Amino acid sequence: MAWSALLLLIVLVSLDMQNIASRWGRIIELGDETTTDFTILVPIFGDPGYFRNGDYLTQYKQHTLLAVNVDSPKMEHFVADLQARGWRVHKAHLTGRVSCPELVFDALQKVTTRYVIRMDGDTVSREHPGRAIAAVRAAEADLCSVKVAVSRRETLIEKLQAVEYDMSMLGRHNRAWMTSGACMIARTAALRVILSSHSYWFPGEDIETGVIAKHYRLSVRHLDMRFYTDAPETFRAWFRQRRMWWSGSFRMAFVNAGQTLRFPLTFVYTVCVVWLLWIAKWHELLDVRHIAAILPFVLLLYTAICFSSNWSVRSRWMVVYPYYALFQALVMPPLGALYYLWLWCRRGTLRPPGRYAIGVRRDGVNLHPFES
Amino acid sequence: MAIRAGFAAAALLGVVTTFGTGLWLAAVVVLLGLIVGLLTAEALPSLRRGRG
To answer: Which domains occur in chain A, in start order?
Structure first.
């Protein structure tokens, strides 16, 4: 019994120390070369307030296309204002629950460059995006995840998210396909193919992009360039965002388990360690004497793991990160699952929503017909 | 004081720790030390500004 417990501990600790392997990941380094063959595509829907990186994008105005869904007089007015200020705008008229991939796919028809940067309305970079594209082009990659970092680190929740983002971006060195909605880079033809097979289901849509790319055997890589994005600045906003993210995780782990199995380590970690062991975690917590005895050791071990596995992005806030991670792992999974079920009920279909539109077996694709 | 209170609570619950009480106490002290260290490091710049 003691040996099996020890073995389980070793397995769990090893899974939590995966980021040590990030130094051996095959990433694309940023070079000095630059290019202008790109379009920055920014999807905006629901409210004009989501367009917050206008100052940053002004310097790349001729390379920017704002994809705006016009479904209200307010958005119509917003588009008119943008156009008056010289922005290139794609007006979409999507109905129902609009999602980023659907809006991006609609706007891709206006993109004539060979590469596209899908970027949220609150994301910026310090380096010239042309350098990113030159590096991606040299590596002949079809889809790239990038390093997404938290731009503002003032409140406690922002600081904890900053640690969390920095650590998870190291994980992208070996799991480049885990693309982030805040920013990703793609060959335009590749993104057309990917998004034409997308379910357009919002929670988890960004990672679905990477999964589809892998399905079509496209070259999916990680570009070592930082893009900075806004993270929720209050606990309430964080909670709302995470409820949706965890619903995306539930969708990936269970609704699309067939496809997630293609990534065995991710499957084991997400389905077994995060979701199935959730019950075991609570079971442990209910025994107060037991938890009082082991919790200090667990927290100490996890603090050491945080620092040692993520030394290149170390932060003094890693000292409190284990408490944040523990809270999230205990509280958010069931709320995410309930949120998914609620969205399912609202949709009123028998078939679970968010099923990937691709099959389980991988399929190669020829991008040539999709090149403009 | 907090450590003593925490340990007393654990003792009251009849905790016989897996790793021994000495190690348990050491773990709690280290965790608290780390948090105090963090708070100090965060507070120092504003304290310096206040003096300046």
So the answer is: 2-350 (3.90.550.10)
